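Render this sequence as a predicted structure.
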Amino acid sequence: TRRSQALEKQRLADKKASASKKKDVGYKDDEPIPKTPAEREAYFVKQLHNGDELMQKGPEFYPDAAACLFRAVKVHPNPMQIMMMLQQAMPDVVFKMVVELMSSDIDAPREDAGPKITEVDD
């Protein structure tokens, strides 16, 4: 139906916009998320450290720093707590980039999100 086609078109546009936001701030979604708690903790520390080092290099490195910090937040068991701490410790522009990445990650359609709902004509 036309409505189903319109919904599919909108879903694809949303996916493209989400990918564009991530690309604009230097985020690559091809890095696998660690599985075990120990691996996640090591990954978190590494990404936090990398993000901090990149921020220290200056504004031209902020997008890559934000991508590292986003990855750190993404694997932490309490992301909101980390976001509150990061907000106090980083320039506003970097924090906004991290928030954008989080928003686009939440908005991004998941391939494994279950069956697609379609409208049925009567």
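Summary. Confidence is low (pLDDT under 50) at residues 17-25, 111-118. Residues 2-24 form the longest helix (23 residues).
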